[in-house]
User: Which sequence fits this backbone?
């Protein structure tokens, strides 16, 4: 049996980056750039008006001054010719500023009558966004390795990039074992339960950009073997249930028959002691005990870090922060305990355990937003600092 830290390290050693691939910018959030991105254009590509108003020669504007309006320029249009003394041109926000103009007066500071525009004050600012003042052609926009966020998308698109080269997301096969589980929404027969792990894991995968529909397979060796063989066509196989030591925990033996090399099977942690991890070539195989809390914790600690590393993200390691215990934590287990907790962010993070009936307590999981780490065989005093992982 290995430690929790050793299990995480083993998974991360095994996870190898996939070859990068071109990705549409609108689908690139959460991906790591596999290239430096430089702008193909200047931004703005021309001197443009920052307001709705009148393009003028600033020296001609003073309270009571009048200029002849020579036309209207909307965004996407242009003014033919050059602005002459005594003239002005009405321009909309984003429209090119006519040649010869050096300022735009806001429409609120003017009054137009019969083609003459009267100004109510002197110029306060030019109100012109100059060509290239935001982005220069060839300028570095984002560096290789940057994890793209929603705030990056507009800059990438404005720089002329419809696609960027990013780390590729692994394909994931999601298998739920058990003859008693049925999809939510269907009639619930005798001695059956709804499949909660499948939708939960599918939703967690979706937050990482991966679509995987859960496949329910009964505890029948032939059917389960066929399902696992098909699943092994994916980069990652995620099996929920069937990995403990019971008569119908068939997964480890079937995986061995299918050529999966076991890396570890038990981890000195609660929840998630009978955790299986194996390899077939570069394919990663996770077998998680069927309890929902164990599924959730295993995804945060092992699966998400593996996905991120395979996708080339530099921030792949599970994020453990430090907080202070609001009360005593005493899980009474010789193993490393990951205790369901509520995490409150103030000047520091404060941690409070959530009462639960074990790793199958779905309502306790719904009430929590973190796991607090308690040392093997130990307890934590009120006010003591410890690590936690959260999904805040």
Assistant:
């Amino acid at each position: 049996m290995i430690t929790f830290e050793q299990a995480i390290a083993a998974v991360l050693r095994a996870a190898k980056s996939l070859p990068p691939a071109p990705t549409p910018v609108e689908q690139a959030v959460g991906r790591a750039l596999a290239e430096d991105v430089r702008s193909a254009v200047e931004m703005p590509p021309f001197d443009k008006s920052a307001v709705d108003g009148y393009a003028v020669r600033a020296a001609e504007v003073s309270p009571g001054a009048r200029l002849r309006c020579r036309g209207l320029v909307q965004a996407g249009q242009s003014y033919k010719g050059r602005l002459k003394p005594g003239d002005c041109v009405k321009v909309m926000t984003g429209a090119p500023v006519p040649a010869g103009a050096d300022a735009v007066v806001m429409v609120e500071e003017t009054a137009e009558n019969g083609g003459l525009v009267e100004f109510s004050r002197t110029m306060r600012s030019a109100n012109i966004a100059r060509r290239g003042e935001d982005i220069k052609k060839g300028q570095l926009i984002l560096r290789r390795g940057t994890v793209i966020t929603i705030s990056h998308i507009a800059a990438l698109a404005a720089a002329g990039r419809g696609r960027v080269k990013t780390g590729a997301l692994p394909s994931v096969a999601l298998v739920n074992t058990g003859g008693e589980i049925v999809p939510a929404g269907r009639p619930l027969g005798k001695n059956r339960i709804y499949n909660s792990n499948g939708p939960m894991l599918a939703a967690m995968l979706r937050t990482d950009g991966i679509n995987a529909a859960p496949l329910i397979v009964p505890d029948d060796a032939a059917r389960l073997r066929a399902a696992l063989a098909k699943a092994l066509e994916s980069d990652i196989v995620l099996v929920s249930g069937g990995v403990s030591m019971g008569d119908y925990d068939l997964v480890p033996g079937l995986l061995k028959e299918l050529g999966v090399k076991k890396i570890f099977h038990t981890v000195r942690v609660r929840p998630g002691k009978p955790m299986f991890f194996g390899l077939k070539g570069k394919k990663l195989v996770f077998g998680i005990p069927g309890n929902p809390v164990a599924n959730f914790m295993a995804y945060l600690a092992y699966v998400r870090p593996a996905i991120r590393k395979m996708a080339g993200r530099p921030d792949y390691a599970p994020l453990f922060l430090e907080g202070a215990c609001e009360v005593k934590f005493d899980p009474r287990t010789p193993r490393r305990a990951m205790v369901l907790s509520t995490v409150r962010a103030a000047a520091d993070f404060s941690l409070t355990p959530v009462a639960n009936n074990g790793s199958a307590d779905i309502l306790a999981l719904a009430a929590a937003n973190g796991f607090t780490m308690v040392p093997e065989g130990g307890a934590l005093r009120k006010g003591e600092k410890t690590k936690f992982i959260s999904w805040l």
Q: What stands out?
A: The two ends are 31 Å apart (CA to CA). Residues 67 and 362 are 73 Å apart (CA to CA). The chain has a mean pLDDT of 94. Residues 321-390 form a domain with the Beta-clip fold (CATH 2.40.340.10).
